[in-house]
């Protein structure tokens, strides 16, 4: 059997054989085998034990599952929960089926304290919180205690090995020695395999020659010597072949014994890279904030200190940023990032100065961070809405009291608040990971609506809205109202960071007595430049409740089907409607990402007003408990990763229509925009300033002017029809109608707007205000 020796190469014996009938052992050196030395007598491969190789003894990863009772509150007491112990984490769910989408909580055992009480009770304390658990029997309790203590010991050891604390601790000398030993062993095995390969070729050729000579000398007197030579050659070939097999087996054993460690290290490096990318993005945002602050007061500004702490569920990330301006002409930003789940230490310094030593920096404009407070005007909504049951609200004149000072075009543009999700998706190599980020982006557009019960202004026909954020976020957007009845808007966004988005949305809104339902019709298209992946999805139904009595509140419900038309990957997102009697998390969103064969790869979960997470599926099985006798698929997943989290609202947002930071800037006056831009709409501008009576007067004037314009166009069309002529209907200025492969009509941006803005040539624009 193949074994490794530490002797000099000239005397190294790699094959150990024993004579067929002898009691002694004989070593055959590599040199002798290469020379093809003759052997007398029959030899067989000795069954010698392989030497024990140095290896890394990692703690085993225990998995334990079962039902326990968990203390919830004094009203409900102990509730039965399904607990899963894996990888040093104790997770619990309401049912086994919930493992596919919702984890109710996770307890890291590495830092937890385990205390055993009386009568099947045990208490886990972690992060200042205590979990009171109860087993069904003393035996079951003892099994859980043993499993928890073993998992805690393993997790503590793994934490020391992987250095999850984030401190810069050098690799222990013992681990380094073990790793070097493994690599040296593998290199030795590879040398043996190479030697065996050469010997097999050499002895095989010699055996072939001997057989040929034996054939030629058949019947001669030299045949006996030739047969003896052939037997020796065959013996050498057999020994070499067996040695080759043993060398291959040893190499595979060594590689398999350490493959798990290497796979874990590879996964760890991938997570490190992901955290590093997120850290760099945060650094860029802090850089922009510093530039804005410096521009506001460049002379007296001395320092800005920011700290940002992630949510406990945000993969336990913590980051501190320190920005400082000194007497030096350079602005330096120092960021220290401490990531609890990965040992990353990042210290970056940016110096913005020219060669002459003077400050030279192009600062972006400072966006506003507040608008006038909303006046406290009382108005009976039911007195207006009671005559509108079953009607299309877009055709009913409403006072500005029920509006917010933004148009529908600006609300569409507000979907871009989390455009960094698309920037990240554009850098993804995997289309399935890209699908997860696209799904998170589709959910993020609803995060600002949770408190926004007021309706936006209906845009006038031909009204436009532009948003140029090339400097800040690398994109610019243009919207146009292409139809008035039914109201329809077209939207086009181009990003320098690798993606283009466009949509054509028609709003169908109905008043149902107790609630108002708003159904967006049309598709959203997204294409990434590098991969060519083209995604299509639609929006869900928005419902405003308590129209008659009570506080207004909004809910999102329905399904979003996202399809990658290039790879045929799909994702179905389910927005669960709110129910007072449901025990589910309010505003819950769940989804599954599947490839073109229908195989599930990721589970998405979260809420549309807070965050979305993704968990990679590692196994699936058929469970029980499905409706109508159908079996549900139970997925086993890796720990979830945060895809998106909502930004906090600005200070005093409750008095500013609950606008987000982006929404506060959408109606900010801008120079050089088209005369049809929503920022120039007088009723909307007056409402934002708190002059609601004047805003209502302007709103009535604009609506009357629009009605007269529509009647004029209809009269011209009727007159042309009587004269046998054909007059084409209203045509948008920046968009044109096209027919998709599905037969649906969609308005596509035809170009020209940004060129007209650069020339300041708005001669084609109608006077609508």
UniProtKB/TrEMBL annotation:
**One Gene Ontology term of the molecular function aspect:** cholesterol binding
The record's section on SUPFAM superfamilies has: Oxysterol-binding protein-like, PH domain-like
Q: Where is the PH domain?
A: 61-153
Question: Do you know which Pfam families this protein is assigned to?
Answer: Oxysterol_BP (PF01237), PH (PF00169)
Coiled coil regions, renumbered to chain: 698-725
Q: Which domain of life is it from?
A: Eukaryota
The record's listing under InterPro entries reads: OSBP_sf, Oxysterol-bd, Oxysterol-bd_CS, PH-like_dom_sf, PH_domain
Q: Where is this region: Disordered?
A: 291-316
Q: Where in the cell is it found?
A: Membrane
Q: Name one GO biological process term.
A: lipid transport
Asked whether the keyword Transport is assigned, the reply is yes
Say where the protein is mainly found.
membrane
What sections of the protein cross the membrane? none
Q: Per the record's keyword annotation, is Coiled coil included, yes or no?
A: yes
| Membrane topology recorded in Swiss-Prot or TrEMBL | Peripheral membrane protein
CDD domains the record matches: PH_OSBP_ORP4 (cd13284)
Cite a GO CC annotation: plasma membrane
* Key words of the record: Coiled coil, Lipid transport, Lipid-binding, Membrane, Phosphoprotein, Transport
The record's family statement is: Belongs to the OSBP family.
Q: What is this protein called?
A: Oxysterol-binding protein
Q: Which gene encodes it?
A: osbp2a
